[in-house]
C-alpha cells in the first residue's frame, strides 16, 4: 500500500465544552477528489482549519506526504503544498487582483522575484477567466470573481492538496458552472482536492469520494453513490424530509 | 528607469545635498541649527515607527524605549572612553538585539493589546536604568564626556550626524517597502490570516520589521545624548519620544515613504509656532492644532495632496 497523501488520525478539537471535531480519522490519496458534506455547524471548516494549521488539534495526529504536521503553522504547510480557500473570501483589499495572486506565487509558490511572481499570477488569472480583473482592487470585483481570485491564489502556490471551503456559496447557477470548470482544470493537473459543498448536485458531478461529518463526527466515507445511499447519512444530513429528494438525485 | 528608482535617487541626492549644504548655510544660526537637528531626530523616529506602525500595521509605542536605550548605551560607552562612532554602532546593535526577543513575543498580540504591551517596554527600561545607578547614574543622570568642547562645533556636528541618519532611515524605509519583506508586511497589515494562508511567515517578518525599526531609533537616542551632553531617565524615556513620531507620521501619511518627512516638518513647525506664541498653553494648543489637522486631512498631508491631484 502506498503512503497516503494526507492521513488524519483520531483528531479532536474542543471549543470550551463543545466538541467541534470528535475523533475524526480519514485518508486521502494523491490526485483524489473528495467531497465533504455536513449540515451547518457540523465541523467542516474546523476540520480544514485543523489540517491546514490554522487551529491546533486538542488530540490526534495529522500526516501530510508521509511527515507528521500536527501543530505546524499555516505558512509552512502552504509552502509544502497544503492550501485552502476561505469560506468567507479573504482578499488583500489594497492590492490589485494581480498582486493578490503574485503574493501567493511569491510566498507559497517560491517565485524568486516580483516580476516572476506577477507573470505566474497573470497566467493564473487568465486561465481562471478573470484576466480582465488583473488591475482591479478586490472591492470592485463581483463575488464570483473574488471566489475565482481565491482559487487563483491557491493555485499559483502549486499545491499537492487543496481544500475548497464552499467556493460556490452565494453564486448563481451559471457562475457555479464556471467555477466548476476551473476546479476541473486544477484537478486535471493532479492536485488532490477536498470540496466542501452544500449542493449535492455539485458533489455528485465532481467527487467520486465523499466524507460526511455530523456534529463533529465522521458519519460515513467512501464512494459517493454508496455514501449518499447510506440511511443514517440521509437522515442526519438531510432530515427525513429531504431524504426522498436526495435519493432521487442519486439514482 | 522605474518611478521607484527615481524616487530613491531623488531621496539620496536631496538628502546628500542637505547633509553637505545645510551645516554650511546654517553656520552661525544656533536657533535654526537646533530646529533642523530636532527635525532630523524626529524624522528618524517617525520613519522608524512607519516600518512597524505603517507598513506592518502594528501601532508600536516602543520607539521611545529604543531611543532611551540607545542614549544610555552610547553615553555609558563614551564615558568609558569609547569613540563616538563605535558608540553609535553599539547603540544600534543594542536596539536590534533587544528588539529581537521583545518583538518575537509582543508581536503575537494585536491592536490595543500590542500597543499597551509595547508601551510597557519603555517603562521597564526606565525603571531598570534608574535602579542600576552604578552604571547609569540612576536618577541623577549621566554627563557625556567630550561634550564639553566648543558648543558651535558640537551643534554643527550633531546637525550633520542627525541629518545623515535621517536620510539613511528614509532610504531604509524605501528599501523595505519595495522588497519581498515589504510585500509580506503589506499582506500582514491587510489580512494576517490570509497572509499565513499564502505562505507568509508573519511572525518572522513582523519581528524583522520590529528589529529594523528599532535600530535607527536607538542610534537617534545616541546622537541626542551626544548633542545634549546630559541625559536622565525621565528625559530620554519620556513617552513623548514614542508619541511624537506617531503624530508626525499621521500628519504626513501613514505607510508612505515621504510621509514621515512631511509630517516631521509640519510637527516641528507647529511646535515652534505654538511654543513661541502661546508659551503658557503650548502643549494644549499643539494638541488642538494636531487634532484639527487630522480631522481635515485624515489620511495625512501627502496622500490627501496626491488624491486631490488625481481627482482634478
Ligand atoms: N473559533 C471557534 N470558537 C468557538 N467555537 C467555534 C469556533 N469555530 C467553530 N466553532 C463551533 O464549532 C462548530 C463547528 O463549526 P464549523 O464552522 O466548523 O462548521 P461548518 O461545518 O463549517 O458549518 P457551515 O456549514 O455553517 O460553514 C460550530 O458549532 C461552531 O459554532
Ligand atoms: Mg464552514
Per CATH, the architecture of the largest domain in chain A is 3-Layer(aba) Sandwich
Give the amount of beta strand of chain A, in percent: 15-25%
Number of domains of chain A: 2
Query: What is the level 1 CATH name of the largest domain in chain A?
Result: Alpha Beta
Oligomer: heterodimer
The span between the termini of chain B is 27 Å
Helix content of chain B: over 70%
| Helix and strand pattern of chain B | HHHHHHEHHHHEHHHHH
Average pLDDT taken over every residue of chain B: 90
Segments of chain A where pLDDT lies below 50 for 5+ residues? none
Instruction: Please mark out the parts of chain B with pLDDT under 50 across 5 or more consecutive residues, or reply none.
Output: none
Distance between the termini of chain A: 32 Å
**Estimated radius of gyration of chain B:** 19 Å
Order of helices and strands of chain A: EEEHEEHEHHHEHEHEEHH
What would your notes on this structure say?
The complex is a heterodimer of chains A (251) and B (312). Chain A is of the alpha/beta class and 251 residues long. In chain A, helix 6 (173-187) links the parallel strand 7 and strand 8 (192-196). In chain A, the strands form 2 sheets. Chain A has a 6-stranded mixed β-sheet with strand order 6-7-8-3-9-10, sandwiched between helices. In chain A, strands 2-1-4-5 form a 4-stranded antiparallel β-sheet, covered by helices on one side. The relative contact order of chain A is 0.16. Chain A is built from 9 helices and 10 strands. Chain A folds into 2 domains: 1-81 and 160-251, Rossmann fold (3-Layer(aba) Sandwich), CATH 3.40.50; 92-158, no CATH class. Chain A is 40% helix and 24% strand. With 312 residues, chain B is an all-alpha fold. Chain B has one domain (3-240). Helices cover 79% and strands 1% of the residues of chain B. Chain B has helices at residues 3-25, 30-55, 63-79, 84-106, 111-131, 133-136, 151-177, 180-190, 192-197, 202-228, 233-236, 240-252, 259-277, 282-296, 301-311; strands spanning 142-143, 230-231. The longest helix of chain B has 27 residues, at 151-177. Classes of the chains: A alpha/beta (251), B mainly alpha (312). Chain A binds chain B through residues 52, 54, 73-76, 78-79, 83-84, 86, 90-95, 103-104, 106-109, 114, 153, 157, and chain B through 180, 183-184, 186-187, 190-191, 193-203. The site of adenosine-5'-triphosphate has 12 residues of chain A, from strand 2 and helix 1.
Amino acid at each position: 500500500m502506498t503512503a497516503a497523501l494526507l492521513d488524519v488520525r483520531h483528531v479532536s478539537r474542543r471549543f470550551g465544552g463543545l466538541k467541534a471535531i470528535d475523533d475524526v480519522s480519514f485518508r486521502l490519496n494523491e490526485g483524489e477528489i473528495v467531497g465533504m458534506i455536513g449540515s451547518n455547524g457540523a465541523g467542516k471548516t474546523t476540520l480544514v482549519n485543523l489540517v491546514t494549521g490554522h487551529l491546533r488539534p486538542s488530540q490526534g495526529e495529522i500526516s501530510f506526504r508521509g511527515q507528521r504536521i500536527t501543530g505546524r503553522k499555516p505558512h509552512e504547510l502552504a509552502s509544502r503544498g497544503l492550501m485552502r480557500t476561505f469560506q468567507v473570501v479573504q482578499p488583500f483589499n489594497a492590492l490589485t487582483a494581480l498582486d493578490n495572486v503574485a503574493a501567493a506565487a511569491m510566498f507559497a509558490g517560491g517565485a524568486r522575484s516580483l516580476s516572476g511572481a506577477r507573470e505566474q499570477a497573470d497566467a493564473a488569472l487568465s486561465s481562471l477567466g478573470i484576466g480582465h480583473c488583473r488591475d482591479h482592487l478586490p472591492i470592485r470585483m463581483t463575488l464570483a470573481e473574488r471566489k475565482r481570485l481565491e482559487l487563483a491564489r491557491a493555485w499559483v502556490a502549486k499545491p499537492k492538496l487543496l481544500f475548497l471551503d464552499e467556493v460556490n456559496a452565494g453564486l448563481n447557477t451559471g457562475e457555479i458552472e464556471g467555477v466548476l470548470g476551473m476546479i476541473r482544470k486544477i484537478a486535471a493537473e493532479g492536485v488532490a482536492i477536498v470540496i466542501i459543498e452544500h449542493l449535492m448536485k455539485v458533489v455528485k458531478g465532481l467527487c467520486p469520494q465523499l466524507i460526511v461529518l455530523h456534529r463533529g463526527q465522521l458519519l460515513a466515507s467512501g464512494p459517493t453513490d454508496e455514501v449518499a445511499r447510506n440511511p443514517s447519512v440521509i437522515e442526519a444530513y438531510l432530515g427525513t424530509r429531504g431524504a426522498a429528494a436526495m435519493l432521487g438525485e442519486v439514482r | 528607469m522605474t518611478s521607484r528608482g527615481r524616487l530613491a535617487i531623488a531621496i539620496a541626492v536631496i538628502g546628500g545635498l542637505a547633509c553637505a549644504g545645510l551645516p554650511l548655510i546654517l553656520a552661525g544660526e544656533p536657533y535654526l541649527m537646533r530646529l533642523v537637528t530636532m527635525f532630523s531626530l524626529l524624522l528618524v523616529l517617525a520613519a522608524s515607527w512607519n516600518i512597524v506602525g505603517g507598513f506592518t500595521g502594528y501601532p508600536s509605542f516602543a520607539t521611545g524605549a529604543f531611543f532611551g536605550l540607545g542614549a544610555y548605551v552610547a553615553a555609558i560607552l563614551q564615558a568609558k572612553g569609547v569613540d563616538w562612532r563605535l558608540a553609535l554602532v553599539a547603540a544600534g546593535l543594542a536596539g536590534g538585539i533587544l528588539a529581537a526577543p521583545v518583538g518575537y513575543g509582543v508581536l503575537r498580540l494585536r491592536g490595543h493589546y500590542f500597543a499597551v504591551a509595547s508601551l510597557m517596554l519603555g517603562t521597564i527600561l526606565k525603571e531598570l536604568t534608574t535602579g542600576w545607578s552604578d552604571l547609569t547614574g540612576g536618577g541623577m543622570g549621566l554627563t557625556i564626556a567630550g561634550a564639553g568642547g566648543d558648543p558651535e562645533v558640537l551643534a554643527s556636528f550633531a546637525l550633520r550626524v542627525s541629518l545623515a541618519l535621517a536620510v539613511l532611515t528614509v532610504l531604509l524605509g524605501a528599501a523595505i517597502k519595495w522588497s519581498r519583506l515589504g510585500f509580506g508586511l503589506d499582506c500582514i497589515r491587510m489580512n494576517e490570516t490570509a497572509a499565513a494562508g499564502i505562505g507568509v511567515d508573519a511572525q518572522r517578518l513582523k519581528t524583522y520589521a520590529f528589529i529594523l525599526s528599532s535600530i535607527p531609533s536607538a542610534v537617534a537616542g545616541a546622537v541626542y545624548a551626544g548633542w545634549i551632553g546630559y541625559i536622565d531617565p525621565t528625559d530620554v524615556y519620556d513617552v513623548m519620544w514614542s508619541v511624537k513620531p506617531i503624530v508626525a507620521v499621521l500628519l504626513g501619511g501613514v505607510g508612505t515613504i515621504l510621509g514621515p518627512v512631511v509630517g516631521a516638518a509640519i510637527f516641528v513647525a507647529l511646535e515652534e509656532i505654538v511654543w513661541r506664541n502661546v508659551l503658557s498653553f503650548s502643549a494644549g494648543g499643539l494638541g488642538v492644532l494636531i487634532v484639527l489637522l487630522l480631522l481635515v486631512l485624515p489620511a495625512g498631508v501627502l496622500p490627501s495632496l496626491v488624491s486631490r491631484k488625481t481627482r482634478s
